[in-house]
Amino acid sequence: MEQDEKQQIRERIYSEIENAQEQISELEQLTKPIAPDAAIGRISRMEAINNKSVNELLLSKTKSKLQKLESSLSFIEQDDYGLCRICKNQIPLGRLMMLPESDRCVDCA
């Protein structure tokens, strides 16, 4: 992989890390405990609890993505960056731009 391609991916990773950190901050606010008598507008407490559960799952997935992005960022300077960790074929640049945390090609994913 050429250095200009790595630079494009690096910039994409930084952008994704920033977005993930912002999303984590927002989701942490949405996953705070719900008071037993809480009713938010017309939303019942049960709906609020359900929304909290959905947000907790999204928070967990976003934290996992952040870890993968940070790992990819530290791995980007290695010679085998951009190679599928399973079949060792080149991961297309388009895939790395869409999912910079990818470590597998489409076939192996």
Description:
- There is one protein chain.
- The protein has one domain (3-98): DksA, coiled-coil domain (Four Helix Bundle (Hemerythrin (Met), subunit A)), CATH 1.20.120.910.
- The chain is 60% helix and 0% strand.
- It contains three helices and no strands.
- The two termini are 20 Å apart.
What is the total domain count?
Answer: 1
Let me know the largest β-sheet.
none
Helix content class: 55-70%
Radius of gyration: 19 Å
Q: What is the fourth-level CATH superfamily? A: DksA, coiled-coil domain
The count of strands amounts to 0
CATH architecture: Up-down Bundle
Cα(first) to Cα(last) distance is: 20 Å
Q: Which topology does CATH recognise? A: Four Helix Bundle (Hemerythrin (Met), subunit A)
In percent terms, what proportion of residues is strand?
Answer: under 5%
Class computed from helices, strands and strand pairing:
mainly alpha
CATH level 1 class label: Mainly Alpha
Order of helices and strands: HHH
| Average residue pLDDT | 89
Count up the helices: 3
Low-confidence stretches: none
What does the overall shape look like? elongated
Summarize it:
The protein is mainly α. It contains 3 helices and no strands.
Reconstruct the topology from this structure.
Layout: H1 3-30, H2 45-75, H3 93-98
Features:
single chain, 109 residues, mainly alpha, Four Helix Bundle (Hemerythrin (Met), subunit A), 60% helix
